[in-house]
């Protein structure tokens, strides 16, 4: 975090990244003194509603964050920024995007929680777009030109007003992570799933925070008063309290519905209760046993759609095969329940020292029940591609000097990953077929 005083004094000359939070209502022109070096500009959490007409002076700018400001339209000047590839305007009041407001080189666009009802017809010219976050808008359709966004890998469409899912979307060659819950054709108004019992929050004491995601905060909890009907439940549990009406992936009610509809599987974190009390919505889960850790880390600004791993991380081919088999079995189960996960990533997978998998985080999950059979099959194969990406990422940790790199098993896993990631959606194997092939390795 920097200050206006530092900026205006010249102290920040030559920096590549600037972050200012100072209740700004006007763009500080002193930022232009950094034009030769500035690559990342973060002016989120201010009161800005416009950018100057000469904003494109920031000729080295690659990444711009202006979330939680007061913009009502996307500044058209952005389209003239020569190197701008990542743009974030989450939680503004944007209802309009001009035809040429986005640079052709846009790679990552975040417009979550705005007021967009349409995207410009020219949107398809963004042929380098890989990641697109549009959850929490008022979109009633998507422009047909988006079929030209052939590089698109991740798209969030949850909590909009879409009346159907476009057929061309499901055929995009690289699409791997798709979420669309909370639209008229898929939204669950109220979770009525009774597969796990309702638990009053007064019966639980929330203790230490165990984690936090886009949709909620997870706490360790113990019983203050355990009703007789809950005596079979463990003494300590994990409780996820959802944050509010909408998240970056959609509505909490949809996440809860997808989690409960999926049901039980040995590689899923068990759901044992649900909380519906006033405005509080929560999920009660089994505590993850000690010894489990995240398989990977979230994507970075550089990797965009692909996970990262800590320095020195390495998995044997046997471990990668074991992880892939468990994930294929888990995802086969989910799709049999007509639920897609939408976020098949190493950072959402937990493993222990034996590489046993626990999978969770249904924030981007979608209920496929209202899709046609053909559409459900395409969703199945889209998620197969995501698993192929995961296998490829894990194999990428094995360097050429490692003897396993030259082995037949490495080649077989690489070929399976390739089959999962084919551009033709219909040519990819099913999870059942993939599980068979992994079991033969």
Automatic annotation (TrEMBL):
Short name of any one Pfam family annotated for the protein: LRR_8
Gene3D superfamilies in the cross-refs: Phosphorylase Kinase, domain 1, Ribonuclease Inhibitor, Transferase(Phosphotransferase) domain 1
Keyword Nucleotide-binding belongs to the record: yes
Superkingdom of origin: Bacteria
Domain Protein kinase positions: 204-441
Coiled coil segments of this chain: none
Gene Ontology MF terms: kinase activity
UniProt keyword annotation of Cell division present: no
Annotated keywords: ATP-binding, Kinase, Leucine-rich repeat, Nucleotide-binding, Repeat, Transferase
Protein's UniProt name: Leucine-rich repeat-containing serine/threonine-protein kinase
Source species of the chain: Shewanella subflava
Lineage: Bacteria, Pseudomonadati, Pseudomonadota, Gammaproteobacteria, Alteromonadales
